[in-house]
Structures are given as structure tokens and as C-alpha cells.
């Protein structure tokens, strides 16, 4: 067992993947000499050289376009988007090329490209640095979308993403980068497309991913003091969803709250709620409720504590499920 931060666990996962396969490349703005703004790629260029850890120009569309070309030549590029809000210039390449080419070629062409995106708020950053763009990509057929929430998943999931022959959007919760956990590197990881019950419970199913998993675990602890048992599930895979795990839990508890940092309106929680309603209608004791960000642009950093869903907002949704 090794104690690692989330940032270091992803770094170690990248290092292991690069040692195992010489076709794995890391590319992005400041990923080499600087080691990334969050130091997630620290030391990789020194150990693997400038031909495998590539400092790119400030051009997100060019980063993804170049990665597509490299993947067509047999490489496995791992692209870092420096901040979540910077991914939008690359959306054209991701949505119209990366996601479409395998089907366009009837499966003859594979694009094993990983797009790493530090996501979410909580670090006091300026505009365009605290977005939650996951719904854009889960809506895009042809992409796998995953979100790690802890160092264990950070280490194993980045390697699974790199080995995957499909393009993967890999979300990393930036406000959790410095949180630590013990990582067993030789352990068998969970399947890449499966969720995980991180706290069993009997009264309400609480679904979360990325930065909100810790918040929901804290809410579950607080709810236990009031005599309520919350079952917290870390979704991990956002597309595809582990609906079997979700439905089994909701059929047991009869209530469900979905939490994410992104605005509630048209967020991923809406799709999950619709699926639960279709599959578990006769098991539900109350409507599926959502706790999330407000339908506004992400505010200046002094206001982000009011914007981000916190323990109280999750518990308020839990309380409302018992009002029916």
C-alpha cells in the first residue's frame, strides 16, 4: 500500500502506462518542463524525453487534431486540457472527428485517445477555470466518459483509459487533487464501466461522481446522526452508465438524490433521473431529486461557495424526498 494524493496517483498511473507501452504519449500545454499547472505530469518529460511528453502550443483544437493523427498511426496519446473551460475550442475535433471516425470507418479505424480534463470548482480560480462540461460529452455518442474521485481510481482508471481502444474523456476533480488515500497498485481494479457503492445504506440512494462524492459521503455521515441511512454510489463511468447497480439500489431504498456540480438544468442528473423513473417507477416512494449548481455562468471566486452544492444542499434534497 502506498499513500498518494489524487494528483500523484494519476502521475503514477501515467508513468506505469508509459513504461508498459512505448506508444503511449503525453501531450498538452505545459505538461513537460513545468509538469502541468497541477503538477500531475511532473517528472515525466525528464524520464521519458521530449518526444513522448510534448509541450504543445496554446491551441486545444490543434492538440486533439494532432492526437487523432497520432492515434491513426498506432500511438496512444493522452491529451491534457489545462482547465475544463479550455476544452470548448477543441469541441469540434472531439465531437465531429474523435467520436465519429470509428463508426465512419465501420470499425476499421480505432482512436485510443484519452482527453484528461481537470474539472469543477472550489479552487478560487478566474473565469473559464471551474466548469463542469460532462453533459456535453455524455450527450456525444462514440465517447466513453469517466470521472475519478479518489487516488485509488485515479491510479487504476487512467491506465484503463489508456488501454481502451475507444476515445475516453477523463474527468479529474481539481479540488480533490491534494487529498490522500492508500493505493494498492497490484490490486485488481473495478471494471472500467462500473460504479461503486462507497457507503451502503437503506433509506435513500445518493448518486454522485467526481468532486461531489466526498461531499455526499459527508452528507451521509450527517444524515446518520438524524437516523437516516444514505447509500452513496460513486458512478465512476458516466457514459456508459452502470444502470444495473443504480436500479438495484433504488429498488431497495425507494428514494434517490443525484448530486453534481454542474447546473441542474439539463445536467447529467436529468438523464439518470429519467432512466430511474422508467425502470423503477413502482419502487419509488418519491420523485427522483437533484442537487447541483445553479443555472448561471460560474460566478467569481468570492461567490463560488454559494454556488457549489454542499452538504446542506444534498441534505435538503434528502429531506424533500421524505415529504412525499
Automatic annotation (TrEMBL):
<dbReference type="Pfam" id="PF02780">
    <property type="entry name" value="Transketolase_C"/>
</dbReference>
<dbReference type="InterPro" id="IPR033248">
    <property type="entry name" value="Transketolase_C"/>
</dbReference>
<dbReference type="InterPro" id="IPR009014">
    <property type="entry name" value="Transketo_C/PFOR_II"/>
</dbReference>
<feature type="domain" description="Transketolase-like pyrimidine-binding">
    <location>
        <begin position="4"/>
        <end position="179"/>
    </location>
</feature>
<keyword id="KW-0560">Oxidoreductase</keyword>
<dbReference type="InterPro" id="IPR029061">
    <property type="entry name" value="THDP-binding"/>
</dbReference>
<dbReference type="InterPro" id="IPR005475">
    <property type="entry name" value="Transketolase-like_Pyr-bd"/>
</dbReference>
<keyword id="KW-0786">Thiamine pyrophosphate</keyword>
<protein>
    <submittedName>
        <fullName>Alpha-ketoacid dehydrogenase subunit beta</fullName>
    </submittedName>
</protein>
<dbReference type="Pfam" id="PF02779">
    <property type="entry name" value="Transket_pyr"/>
</dbReference>
Amino acid at each position: 500500500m502506498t499513500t498518494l494524493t489524487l494528483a500523484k496517483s494519476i502521475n503514477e498511473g501515467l508513468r506505469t502506462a508509459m513504461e508498459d507501452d512505448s506508444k503511449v504519449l503525453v501531450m498538452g500545454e505545459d505538461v513537460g518542463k513545468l509538469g502541468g499547472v497541477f503538477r500531475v505530469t511532473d517528472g515525466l518529460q525528464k524520464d521519458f524525453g521530449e518526444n513522448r511528453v510534448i509541450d504543445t502550443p496554446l491551441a486545444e483544437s490543434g492538440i486533439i487534431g494532432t492526437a487523432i493523427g497520432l492515434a491513426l498511426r498506432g500511438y496512444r496519446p493522452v491529451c491534457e486540457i489545462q482547465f475544463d473551460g479550455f476544452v470548448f475550442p477543441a469541441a469540434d475535433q472531439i465531437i465531429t472527428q474523435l467520436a465519429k471516425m470509428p463508426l465512419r470507418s465501420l470499425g476499421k479505424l480505432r482512436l485510443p485517445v484519452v482527453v484528461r480534463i481537470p474539472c469543477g470548482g472550489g479552487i478560487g480560480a478566474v473565469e473559464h477555470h471551474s466548469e463542469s462540461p460532462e453533459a456535453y460529452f455524455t450527450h456525444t455518442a462514440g465517447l466513453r466518459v469517466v470521472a475519478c474521485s479518489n487516488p485509488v481510481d485515479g491510479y487504476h482508471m487512467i491506465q484503463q483509459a489508456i488501454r481502451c481502444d475507444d476515445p475516453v474523456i477523463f474527468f479529474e476533480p481539481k479540488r480533490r487533487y491534494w487529498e490522500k488515500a492508500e493505493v494498492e497498485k497490484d490490486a485488481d481494479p473495478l471494471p472500467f464501466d462500473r460504479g461503486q457503492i462507497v457507503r451502503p445504506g437503506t433509506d435513500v440512494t445518493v448518486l454522485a461522481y467526481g468532486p461531489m462524492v466526498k461531499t455526499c459521503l459527508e452528507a451521509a455521515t450527517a444524515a446518520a446522526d438524524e437516523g437516516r441511512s444514505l447509500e452513496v454510489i460513486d458512478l465512476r463511468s458516466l457514459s456508459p452508465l452502470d444502470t444495473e447497480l443504480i436500479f438495484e439500489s433504488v429498488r431497495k431504498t425507494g428514494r434517490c438524490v443525484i448530486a453534481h456540480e454542474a447546473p441542474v438544468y439539463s445536467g447529467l442528473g436529468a438523464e439518470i433521473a429519467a432512466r430511474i423513473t422508467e425502470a423503477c417507477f413502482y419502487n419509488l416512494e418519491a420523485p427522483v431529486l437533484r442537487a447541483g449548481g445553479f443555472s448561471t455562468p460560474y460566478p467569481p471566486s468570492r461567490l463560488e461557495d454559494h454556488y457549489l452544492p454542499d452538504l446542506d444542499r444534498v441534505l435538503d434534497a434528502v429531506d424533500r424526498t421524505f415529504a412525499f
